[in-house]
Amino acid sequence: MTGGNVQSDDVIVISESSPTAVEVELARQKLRQHGELASVLNFLNVFEPVMQSNIKVSAEEIEHALIEQNKLLGQLHKALLKGIHPVSKTLDSSDAWVIVLSKKLMMWWPWVAEGDFPLNGAKGEEISIYKELDPTVRLFILKALCEVRADQDDIVSYINHAIKSGTEVSTFRKDKLAGDEHGTAFWYDGNATIGYRLYKEVLTFESKPRVNVKDTVPAINSQWETLATNLEEFYKIVDELSSSEVKWEAVVSRTVETNAIPILEKLQKKKQRALQRQKREQILLNGIRTAGITRSCRNLRPVNYSFDDYDRTIKEAIIYTKGGPKMKIQWRRNQKIIGKNLEKPQEK
After folding, report:
1. Which residues, in sequence order, are bridge partners of residue 205?
2. Pairing verdict, β 178-179 and 216-228
3. What is the pTM of this model?
């Protein structure tokens, strides 16, 4: 992985209090134009077992965190910083993680990123400076932190052990989905938690003169485009590329249709079922609340001076406590039957 240049010509100005929907969308689109975002998501996907942070977030939530600077942004950085020794004792104190971040990255920056270190020379003003940064610069900082974290002993040991155990190298060094000889490549990556995404990368080459040398060296520029982030967008890509006369674009279409679409459809159905279950629970909860508020005194049950019902209820409660799942289900059914019988009008 290579670092990104923090110099940016098209800076998106984000409101300090609460960014507008337009500002958020513009910033999101800009983030998705950088390969650093894909690298961060890939790092969190591959090395989740090592980090053990219990931070289960989607790519969209990470984008929001970079733009809006919510609590998740701090949690994510703290989880990464805790794996870089020595661990600071002040790391968990409010926004102190920004100061720790600055100290950790200052010496590493020339090796993991390009351009000047954004928090260099802050000395006590790191927090305020960080909050004023463009979201893409915060992305470059997060990407650089992932680079430093990947160089720690536990991750190096994790990679070596996995390779010796037969894990494919492509697990840690992603292979492109398809591409051509002109520098265009498609990448596909993700998991059920982060989400799945399809990227397009275009490499361009330009000559730059060497310092104190007459000849030049080629400089490689990488331009990224996030083509698909959800099922509908993946469907669209398949339709667009399926009829392409370019051989490798047709390969992308078939690969996505075979490998990605079934996974995304399964995830979509799972989300729909979860949403329907949530709606049913909410309707049931609202019904219980309404029944408690609007109950009429005309529906009061007649008083029963017999101890039979009381004794039966106590016995069933004991059975319920000691019984297994089947017994508890049967107890609930009995309670419903008793409730219906009590609601029947009493014979005169």
Report:
1. 220
2. unpaired
3. 0.74
